[in-house]
Amino acid sequence: MKILIPSLEKHAGEFVPFSDQVSLAALGIDAAGSEDAVMNINVEATYLGDRVLVKGRWYVDLKDVCSRCLEQADYRQEEQFTEEFTRLTGSAPEADPDCAPFAGEENFSYSGDVLDLAEYLRQSFLMSQPLKILCREDCRGLCPVCGVDRNREECCCQDEKIDPRLRVLERFKKK
Ligand SMILES: [Zn+2]
Ligand SMILES: [Zn+2]
Which of 1, 3, 161, 167 is the most exposed place for a label (fewest CB within 10 A)? Predict the structure, then answer.
């Protein structure tokens, strides 16, 4: 997603809306099972002279496997953000890695007439990936003893809070 700086400059001090749809593939993101997923982006940007302030949100509807019941899970990944992009000027002194006071990873920049949000959006997506994907918040998962999907049927197993790896050890001890 690209924002043309001259169109912002004309409206300096105002927030100008931009929206776009970009495939995850175009952002260089490999989302298994969601190859054709699209990021929907809605932002407002304003020109502040040497930098551009961008605020808004993105969302992606994704499919994956529920980590509790192993059924397909449809879920939405989204993020709201406010970020400043600093203009890199040709006359700026070369950053000396030993004494660059603002060499933080949070520092996004652009040069010329185009602010390309792709790299920012790629990182934002990767950082907001959920650790665990659930088909629904209260998914009951598979029975660790008999393996039935407890969302669909009840089983008679006792709900032992035993780690399956420990259970293997117990069986071993009995021998
Ligand atoms: Zn589930
Ligand atoms: Zn069971």
Answer: 161
Residue environment code for 66-94, b if the CB has 16+ CB neighbours within 10 A, otherwise e: bebbeeebebebeeeeebebbbeeeeeee
Distance 78 CA to ligand 1 centre (A): 20
In degrees and rounded to multiples of 5, residue 125 shows phi and psi of -65, -50
CA–centroid distance, 149 to ligand 2, in Å, is 9
Q: How far apart are CA 45 and CA 84, in angstroms?
A: 10
Residue 134 Cα to ligand 1 middle (Å): 5
pLDDT band at residue 169 under the 50/70/90 scheme: low
Model pLDDT for residues 18-76, shown as the tens digit of each residue:
999 999 999 999 877 777 899 999 999 999 988 999 999 999 999 999 999 999 999 99
Q: What is the whole-number distance in angstroms between the Cα of residue 159 and the centre of ligand 2?
A: 8
Name the token pair of 102.
């603002």
Distance in Å, CA 27 to ligand 1 centroid: 29
pTM: 0.74
* 161 CA to centre of ligand 2 in angstroms: 13
Q: Which are the contacts of 103, defined by CB distance < 8 A and separation ≥ 6?
A: 95, 97
